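Go through this:
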Amino acid sequence: MTGVTVTAAQLAQAQIVIDIFSGRTYAAEPRTGSRDKAWLKAAVSYQATWITAQPDLFKRMDLTAVPGAAPVTGTGMVLAPMAKWALKRVSWLKSRSLHVRSPFLDGSGHVTNPLSEASDGAFAWSPMGGG
């Protein structure tokens, strides 16, 4: 996939790093679908390739910056950039936010601005209070 030959040991190291960052093992059946497996495979491939250029990966201290170098993100010292992008695409790591449809924001209603005087006729009037 990457054009770089890696050893079985480097592949196993890459696999465990991706398992840690993904929160799920590649072999987690049946919870892992084919699309997610493809992204995990890509992440492992990118991580294994990146590991070949990081001989001290498993001996580093927890660094957030290297003197005389550009700032590094929290995972930048242990996770390959392309592996990080692949992991962002697995289903369980995507955003879990929900969008509740609103007739005023989504355009599914006939009133564009409920606070406008022009939309007063669109709502039934009822007195406030009980008296």
User: Anything to note?
Assistant: The mean pLDDT is 77.
